[in-house]
Amino acid sequence: MSIFTALCAVGAIIKIPSPTGTVALDSCMGYFSAATFGYAEGGLVASLGHLLTALTTGFPLGIPVHLYIAFQMAVWAMAFRFFTLTIHPVAGIVAGILLNGVASAYLIIPFGGIGLATALVLPLTIGSAANVLIASMAYSIVKRSNMI
What is the pTM of this model? Predict the structure, then answer.
């Protein structure tokens, strides 16, 4: 888990332009860990990945809001595992993108209003798609190699 968290730190540096500056390739290892190792492991790695990204940008929404987002990331990684393993990997991809891209944007309304939510939908969806697709491809490769 520490190696995947370190890889999240590397991904946290690769930013996707957004109003908050906290959209990055930080959660792909969390999604991968969830699918490969389990709900708790993936949730922890995904949440730490977000906190590392927030740290690199100075916690622009404040520490409590970023803890709230980190919790969301843990739940989204767990949902990715559930849909990937119980239904189909494509269902995991769709769920991950919609939850992290669209749901996360609108779950920020209590803290930033509808304007921030609307501004975040596109960059979050793009970032989410990149993270989820990387994780899904990596999981597929590792699964086919019989390493898990």
Answer: 0.94
Q: Residue 43 corresponds to which tokens in the numbers above?
A: 């949730």
CB neighbour list of residue 119: distance below 8 Å, 6 or more residues apart? 18, 19
Residues of the domain holding 10:
2-144
Q: CA 142 to CA 69: how far, in whole Å?
A: 29
pLDDT tens column, 54-77: 999 999 999 999 999 999 999 999
pLDDT at residue 147, as a whole number: 78
Burial group, residue 73, by CB count within 10 angstroms (0-12, 13-18, 19+): buried
35 alpha carbon, distance to own chain's centre: 13
Q: Number of folded domains in the chain?
A: 1
CATH at residue 73: 1.10.1760.20
Instruction: Identify residue 48 by its one-letter amino acid code.
Output: L
